[in-house]
Design a protein that fits this description.
Layout: H1 2-5, H2 10-23, E1 27-30, E2 36-37, E3 48-51, H3 53-60, H4 63-77, H5 81-90, E4 97-98, H6 99-104, H7 119-130, H8 134-148, H9 163-174, E5 183-186, E6 189-192, H10 200-207, H11 210-219, E7 227-231, H12 241-247, E8 253-257, H13 258-266, E9 273-277, E10 280-284, E11 290-293, H14 306-320
Antiparallel strand pairs: 1-2, 1-3, 4-6, 5-6, 7-8, 9-10, 10-11
Helix pairs in contact: 3-4
Length: 322
Amino acid sequence: MRRKIKKGSQDAMRKNYFPDFHRMGLIDRYDEGMNPIGPHGGKRRVKCVALTEAGKRLASAGALDAYFAYSRCIDRLLGGQINVVFRILRDSELDWIDHAEYAFFASGIETRSDFSVSVPEAIDLIKEYRCLTRAQRRMLRVTLRGDLEPTMSAPRRPDKRDLHNWLNEARQVFSLPGQTAYFDARGGRLALTRARSTTAGLARMLLSKSRMKNYFQNHAASRRQGFELHHIVPLAWSESEAQFGILDDWKNALYVDGPSRARIARNGNGNVIMEPRGDDIVLKDPAGGEVCLESGKNAAYDAAKQGALLEHNRKILDAWQE
């Protein structure tokens, strides 16, 4: 690998590249006793690594499918942030989001912090932020810098970082979605991919608003305050343009309330297994954790369509296991 990329020592590869490759799901790491090391695994020395099944698929995929597979790895590394940016840009009038808007608002979406916000709340805040003058934005930063600066009487704590470190961390995360198939990165902004030769079909699907219309028509539902369209198997898990089309389907979606959506997000969007419970739907993760969506209360959907949703979900999950 060092010969291939023509930079870095072996130690640098182990310390700088391999942890990210591991968190992306591309490799497994082992210590000198051939014991597996976890993705965030402490200070044990890495003796060797092995490609995972996802790593093998990426290594053998054609150029376009490799682009999608790599995009899924980026989403895994970022803990679902690709889906966060998706939801902001696809379900609002916003055509782009910049680094400051990501740091101040999007980075707080459905977190466990005190400043956690929902996607609709973040969208409203971004719109209000854009109404500020340049002078007001400068004063906002001055205020934040003073408020976040640790002092001797208020020492540094994990939940109180200075503004520079906060913005720098957000910048590192913000730079990665632009490497995926889904976003264009230009001039410090992220926008949904526009039509180009390699991803023309994807661009049409990304920019289409028909998915919301199709959902509401099939479920005889209408917009509700505090509800959001949730893709059960996340769009960012696609490993080809064809898979994206299968996932971006009304049968892979539910219109759910904010608290339920937040619980799923905090579980890494892992509640992808759909099961019936009367007219209600239970979304489970592989470990058995569940989020129950009560029809009419937590989810606006037509219970008569439950069979179609369950069949589509089973087909998706079976295809992923092939």
